[in-house]
Queue: 4 jobs
Job 1
Amino acid sequence: MPDAWPLLNRSLRGDFRVFRVHEEHRRAPTTKAEHSFFVIEAPDWVNVVPVTEEGQLVFVRQYRFGTEEVTLEIPGGMIDPGDDGPLAAGLRELREETGYISERLVDLGAVEPNPALQTNRCHTVLALEATKDGPATPDGTEDLDVVLFDPADVPALITSGQITHALVVAAFYLYDAWRRSD
């Protein structure tokens, strides 16, 4: 098994509100050579798989600046410092982005978005028996449309390229594993 690479020094290269970039100098344990790496320090994220009382999945369509496209995703976002963990953050994001709420939340697990560069994890929360509680209240940087789909449609939405966000695909893998274990 490979050993950890000892940290020689670390310097902040930029603070960009939602993440920080550090340059790290590390020593390879086998060759003793020194190398420089850039690491993105970001807060953990949460994605929510909301299932309505009727068995429909709640999705959001939104414009993404990185790809300059409208994407089909599930509600999600950063876990804020005031949130009491992924379940609380998931419920908050669900309410803000869709107007739905749920009293039956299940932690489905977490993945590392890109451990080569990033320090954070993305948690997936299942929100069962989600009900509409009012209008969505997205923040000023979000413009969302809420849409419902049958769970049986998800594989085709992924394979046809309608769902392209890797963390949403991972969330549905965790959701499918949870359903199969029941």
Job 2
Amino acid sequence: MAKKSMIEREEKRRRLAKKYAAKRAELKAIAGDKSLPADERFAARLKLAELPRNSAPVRQHNRCEVSGRPRGYYRKLRMSRIALRELASKGQVPGMVKSSW
């Protein structure tokens, strides 16, 4: 099980990214628009830099929803390989059977 503080930190990053998504997109559009004057684009970049760092979606890290583990993460199932194996062994994942030969 991952530390509670790390799980909460990731949750905080998700909330901040969602909160600032519209403002961040607007500022990035202004900063990337070549038809605008350079000083206006530069001002947009400065405002973008003033936003909280954790509001950037790139800072989010995938974590297992069962255990909070950050590594060995399956995107489709939204859980780690270890949690998946445990649930599959208990028969709680539909359609998944432990192989034997």
Job 3
Amino acid sequence: MKMARVILFTGEMDAMSKYYGEVLGLTQVTQEKGWREFEAGGATIGLHSGPSSPGRKGSKIVFHAEDVAALRATLVARGAAFGKVRQGDVFTLCDGKDPDGKPIQLFNR
């Protein structure tokens, strides 16, 4: 099974598009009324205008990084919000949030 897309519902389409396109550096591949999609390493992140359905749980987008600290530094310089890099026994990760407050993570596994 291969992930094809993550859909994020948002009332802040312009801010979210700027974040995923300019701040994270993803290439926008689709722009339609109420829908924008960004290439993300073989999968896509779709932004859908409007609120999510009541009762749905949130989601986290995890981006792979060989060097979590270096990628974090690059993204923070572009305006992304990330916490400290955490080192586990066999992995490194760093959590952050997008402009809608949705969690994202950089992870080296």
Job 4
Amino acid sequence: MVRFIVHPVNSSWRCIIKTATSENIGRLPGPIILLALALLIVLIAGNGPAVSHADGTGTAVLLNIKGPIGPAVSDYVIRGIKKAEEDHASIIILQMDTPGGFDHSMRDIIKNILSSSIPVVSYVAPGGSRAASAGTYILYASHIAAMAPTTNLGAATPIQVGGLPGMPEEDPSPQEKENDTEKPLPADTLERKMVNDAAAYIKALAYRHGRNAEWAEQAVREAVSLTAKEALEINVIDLVAASHADLLLQLDGREVVMETGRVVTLAVTGLVIEPFEPDWRTKILTVITDPNVAYILMLLGIYGLIYELANPGFILPGIVGTICLLLALYTFQILPINYAGLALIILGITFLIAEAFVPSFGALGIGGIVAFVVGSVILMDEEGMRISLYLIGSTALVSAGFLLLLMSRIFTMRRKKVVTGAEEMIGITGEALEDFTEEGRVWVHGESWQAQSSAPVKKGQKIKVTAKEGLLLKIKIIQEDAS
């Protein structure tokens, strides 16, 4: 009789078949022997060593990162990885050309790469591309790191953004000086914490995939960079490929270890590369997180609310302004803005508005334009996230034109003769209705007025109003030229 003893050994199941004698097998019915062999094959195949093979008949999902890494890119990559897992793709190719980006967006991408059930191949391409700053971390986190010729990576030092100027600097402690005597210390404690955290993070990623951890730390602390050839020579990347076809050719047969410990042998010859295109949600998020668009939204929001407050009841400017301002605030919380720049912009706009209500002969207006321009320039100062100088210049010119128009109108209004009220009577000419010495009646502005004069007045004589006190006009005689 055949006995099956099934027990776990090293997290896998093995089946041991023990028989009394070889004669026992011969006595068993044929179907039972076949059933036993089939069961043995199933147990070994399903619970053998943790090694699987990427099926070369599948697909390779291509995700394309081009430009700064922000919330929109993070959302796009995360959904792309999920889509690849749902479609049971063989590999994911993450093609990059990026100057860097935000720390939280980068970490979200890395978390999903590490937890992916499908091997992720980061590929810096095409030629002339780079994986700087956040791109270097993503390259280190990927199961396979590849670069095209004439590309580069590195310069992974974190930069503090959105901080307030004038923050107090602290000297490094004696223990920090002693532990790091050979490496230059950052200027303040906050920056040291950021650099040390980033260095530990990228070193952990390097150890995870057996890559050069020493250079990774240098990229963070000293902002060094490498070409594709140099990176391959010192084990920063796994391969250099000139094209997608070359990449698949070199990937075939490589083994990668997934986060769960499962070993995957890549069989990628003949894979069909399917690009995963951004959908409308990603495109909208990409648009509103563009620094120039966020800048315009902020201005539209402020001016819309100002117009609504100055003209209550229009409603539409208030609604549009509120929506634009909320979108701008949402964008600013995830963009590297300088709060001093934002404060200068608000101050500049406030000065321009004050010029309209409290004329200062241009002092407030000019100060507002200067504050507005300076604030716009320093609002975002990270590479790839700067506001266009053309946009700043055009906006400043429009504001200056508005100021000049406002000042010219005020100047014209000051010079214009008053046409209503008591002031309108001053300077008007009329005619005496009777002879009088001190007070009498005069005809002014089509009406009969009681008038007072310091000199005798004769009937029909031309007079001019010099002042008005209630219903009494003070007049003087107009001397007529002798004919």
